[in-house]
Amino acid sequence: MQIAREWGLNVAQARYSSWGNWYAPVTRFPAALLDAEGYIIFPDEASLRANKKIKITRQINVPSRISSLQGYVKVAGLIPEELPHSQRIVEGAKLKITVNRYERNAAGRKACLEHYGYACSVCDITLKTIYGERAERLIHVHHLIPLSEIGSEYVLDPIKDLRPVCPNCHAFLHTTSPPITIPEAKKILKNLSGNQAKSDGIKQAST
Q1: What is the pTM of this model?
Q2: Which band of pLDDT confidence, cut at 50, 70 and 90, is reported for residue 153?
């Protein structure tokens, strides 16, 4: 289906449910179950039937939704710019729905995070250290050159063109158009931290 192709999924069959709980049967594998924000891939029928959170009758029922399953990959983000294989990763093709969305290849995100890791490129925070194991892979991927400025398809270099950023810093980068650069954001953060340290020092000296 179209959304599976947009997300770069190499599967024989894909089923979609906006809520992620009821699906038509799958007969070809590898198969993907998708919801509005992500997907999970089953390499074979045995792996699908072995999942205790899935009930299979005439339909596939996931009462807790596929987002609760181990192996679920979240693609869609909260920022329109952050929407989700081959060695050549092509992106571009602006798609207009209610907001501007962009055709993304999930392989680009994967390659970026494998290279840079999950620490934010702006504040250096890894959300796992704050929220624990559940936030281990909670990170956005920021495109250094907005696709709206490119206008045509190009071959993406995940190492050169992408950087991991936490949701807060990602939102801050997009408070201007064009976005604030990562070096600019780091400088702003450093200046604010320095001013806060000076303020704390003054307060301590006066007590």
Answers
A1: 0.51
A2: low
